[in-house]
Design goal:
50% helix, Rossmann fold, 3-stranded mixed β-sheet, alpha/beta, single chain, Helicase, Ruva Protein, domain 3, 8% strand, 5 domains
Length: 568
């Protein structure tokens, strides 16, 4: 059996121009080599699998290459390049800080810095996962990192730059590596397929690239796994089966059913997804991504944000033309709420199904909300019996017994799950329709007696005794359709302003959404309600003078006994 080498190692770039998705880093390093402006310490930071260690090794190889090309790439043919490729170079030292993070490890590295390179110009130290070094190790490394010998170059790599102390950051030239984009990753996978004689569907490679989440190393690992399963032919069905990914077709069918309010079809599709072994949260997240893509298709300017093949983009464009933006925004909000609350839901299937039911009737809810208010003139005045709209056929009435008549009626306890019920009386429905919704402040004829009655009605529902007193003592008046509330103190005014339900109650009572009020403080009331000023305590002499005025004999007693008040 031949020795298998994973694609991440087999196709690891050996030149700057082969590095995928990091052209800004590669070009900057090549310009520094060309202009001889090379720093002595570098820090490569970014997500995993984006080429940090690869660029560090290429830079180390270029520094000691005996035949550097005109574009400042390593020749990969000289003795130094071959020694590096065979892991036999004494001038390039790699240290894994994740397992060598103590002060002793750093002291050992500093000892090696003192020896000059045996071959080549530079001795390069590559420290991977440098953020794992301890605080003491960082401090021991500071002086050497700041003033190394002229032949020493340090290249540090990390995925968590925020964990590195500022004194280390200030001594390094920092390069930020970015996540590799899906098109770049797909192109690289296609090149590997050509070299390996593998036939691959573009949709399959796109799924692999999306699943890798910007890390090329992860994409190559997934690629090897799929090839092991399917052989030399990579098809879309094999990829989604191995990666536990739902087919795009499910989401297209779900949205079609949602747009036609076909709730049974939606429920059956979700049941099919569950029977295939997919979790509800995976389905919800995929549906949210699908809705997001449809929203991006609403405007040609956002089409480049779709990381999909051309065939899928055209299919998304067709469905996006049939989907209103209001539906997409509302459905996205429902999907997001479902995802946030999914972990805490006990019945996760029912939780997801409730979200799908809400999405199914989005358009009906929007159309009802947009319907104009029915005018009273449109309802004919006819005498109609007082019958419930959805009431069952009336049962035969029987006279109650004496015990039943005396027994008080039991009220059903309120529940947070009780849905708001429609008015079932036709006459009450008519009266509500006749009452217009006031939106223009000047067209409302408010009466002070009615406002006072609504004010007292709200006061009866307040639990706080102090707030009830403020409401009771407040004076009410109307000026140009505005409610003027007069209180006796600034504290009372602040308390009424904080009572948010007060104005909501008044606006709802008079069906006047734009109703305004103004709170004024009556200075006379404020002074009358102000507490009396505290009296200054009397001194001993002042007390003696008051007592002497009421009883003159005290003066004689003081003179006879030769006494003086305290403090004299």
């Amino acid at each position: 059996m031949t020795h298998f080498v994973v694609s991440a190692r087999k196709y690891r770039p050996t030149r700057f121009e082969d590095v995928v998705g990091q052209a800004h880093v590669s070009q900057t390093l090549k310009n520094a080599l060309q202009n001889d402006h090379l720093a002595h310490a570098f820090l490569f930071c970014g997500p995993r699998g984006v080429g940090k260690t690869t660029c560090a090794r290429i830079l180390a190889k270029v520094l000691n290459c005996q035949n550097v090309t005109a574009t400042f790439e390593p020749c990969n043919e000289c003795d130094n390049c071959k020694a590096f490729q065979e892991n036999a170079s004494f001038n390039i030292i790699e240290l894994d800080a994740a397992s060598n993070n103590s002060v002793e490890n750093i002291r050992s590295l500093i000892e090696q810095v003192r020896f000059q390179p045996q071959q080549g110009k530079y001795k390069v130290f590559i420290i991977d996962e440098v953020h794992m070094l301890s605080q003491s190790a960082f401090n021991a490394f500071l002086k050497t990192l700041e003033e190394p010998p002229p032949y020493a170059i340090f290249i540090l790599a990390t995925t968590e730059k925020h964990k590195i102390i500022p004194t280390i950051l200030s001594r390094c030239q920092i390069y930020d590596f970015k996540r590799i984009q899906v098109p770049d990753m797909v192109k690289h996978l296609q090149d590997i397929c050509e070299q390996e004689s593998i036939q691959a569907d573009p949709e399959a490679l796109h799924i692999i690239a999306q699943k890798a989440d910007g890390a090329l190393r992860d994409a190559l690992s997934i690629f090897d796994r799929i090839v092991s399963f399917s052989g030399n032919k990579l098809i879309y069905e094999d990829v989604i089966a191995n990666l536990n990914v739902l087919d795009y077709d499910y989401y297209f069918r779900v949205v079609d059913a949602l747009l036609t309010e076909d709730l049974p079809a939606v429920m059956l599709l979700f049941d099919e997804v569950l029977r295939k072994g997919f979790d509800g949260d995976l389905f919800v997240n995929g549906l949210a991504e699908h809705l997001r893509n449809l929203l991006m298709c609403q405007d040609p300017a956002t089409l480049p944000l779709l990381e999909l093949t051309e065939g899928l983009q055209s299919r998304y464009a067709v469905q996006a033309g049939q989907t209103p933006p209001a539906f997409l925004l509302t459905a996205l909000q429902i999907a997001n709420d479902c995802d946030v609350e999914f972990k805490t839901a006990r019945n996760k299937r029912l939780h997801t199904e409730m979200a799908l039911i809400k999405m199914t009737y989005i358009q009906r809810a929007v159309s009802i909300a947009r319907q104009p208010q029915v005018q009273a003139a449109e309802i004919p005045e006819k005498k109609t019996p007082d019958i419930s709209v959805s009431a069952p056929p009336p049962k035969e009435k029987t006279s109650p017994t004496v015990e039943q008549a005396k027994e008080p009626k039991k009220e059903k306890p309120a529940s947070s799950f009780d849905a708001p019920k429609l008015n079932t009386n036709l006459n009450s429905l008519k009266s509500e329709v006749r009452m217009p919704v006031n939106t223009d402040q000047g067209a409302v004829d408010l009466k002070l007696e009615e406002v006072q009655a609504a004010w007292e009605e709200y006061s009866a529902t307040v639990q706080s005794e102090s707030i009830r007193n403020f409401l009771k003592l407040a004076g009410l008046a109307l000026e140009n359709g505005k409610l003027i509330v007069t209180v006796g103190s600034n504290f009372a005014g602040s308390a009424l302003r904080e009572e948010k339900g007060l104005m909501e109650h008044l606006r709802k009572s008079f069906r006047f959404p734009s109703m305004e009020w103004e709170i004024r403080v009556d200075e006379e009331k404020r002074k009358a309600n102000a507490p009396p000023p505290k009296k200054k305590p009397l001194t001993a002499r002042e007390k003696f003078i008051q007592m002497k005025e009421s009883n003159p004999l005290l003066s004689k007693m003081r003179d006879r006994l030769d006494l003086l008040p305290d403090g004299d």
